[in-house]
Amino acid sequence: MKQLLKNISPFNNRTEMPTALFVIKKFLAFWVCYIAGLFIAEGIVILLHFACGKNMLVGDVFDAQTITLITYYGYIVISGVALLYWKLIEKKNLSEMGLTKRFGNYFIGAFVGVILLALSVAAIVLTGNMEYHGIFENVDVLMILLLFGGFIIQGATEEILCRGIVLHALKEKTSVWIAIAVSTVLFIMPHWSSLFDGGTVYGVIGVANLVLISIIFSLLTIRFQSIWAACGLHSFWNAILYSVLGLNLSGKDETVTAIFNMQSVGKNIWNGGEYGIEASVITAVVLAVAAALIWYMNRKRENIE
Q: Rounded distance, CA 287 to CA 300, Å?
């Protein structure tokens, strides 16, 4: 038992163990970084409130815009914990988790994200389940830019955890598809709490879409041998969906600010209902086709079967 606990402990860099134990080890490493980062970030937020003369204990908190920015920029704490973990515990270079010098791949991922999002939204509009109502008056450009910065951090953080610490480590020890599967499960779990708020059918479609986009992130990571493309796709999808189009992001229906006024027509599986287009079957089709195309392009190059 003692040897088993040493093997699966995320606080050492042992790799010589059965594959199943190594998977558990990486599973635990993800949660150590994620929970430790959240705990530290929450502590900083509390200190910020008190430093600004606000008492959270009686409901005296920052306004909605400030809270939103703090939430997304707070992900930098989780990133910091994950990077320190990789350097101090795993004792590996950042390039070994996919943070290579090929930063230009970030913009390839961003371009792919814009195309996938545009196709999904356009298809939903064409079916009559979403309408365009023009541009909002008094667009808060500064807030949108600040939100973009927050989404860049948030998207990169999730990719550092899922595709960096988990996928990159596992694909050296297990099959590529096991590595993709484990990173996908861990990607979905933090999103689980809001998935079924709008109903079971939307939750099921939402899970399917999370699986598909996670596979796309993973295949891009393998294709470019870095996480930059996945970071670009992840961040630009979130930023444009939320702060440009003003649509629900992962079930979050209170948009702080946006440029275009896009409104769902009714609540159905075509527009994703309360959860938004990330629970739409149309988005599922777009993502499924994209995942198949990227897999096909990777197949011979990376021998992914």
A: 21
pTM here is 0.93
Give the chain's mean pLDDT. Answer: 92
The string of pLDDT tens digits covering residues 79-136 is: 999 999 999 999 999 999 999 999 999 999 999 999 999 999 999 999 999 999 999 9
pLDDT in tens, 36-86: 999 999 999 989 988 888 888 777 888 888 888 999 999 999 999 999 999
Name the DSSP class of 136.
P
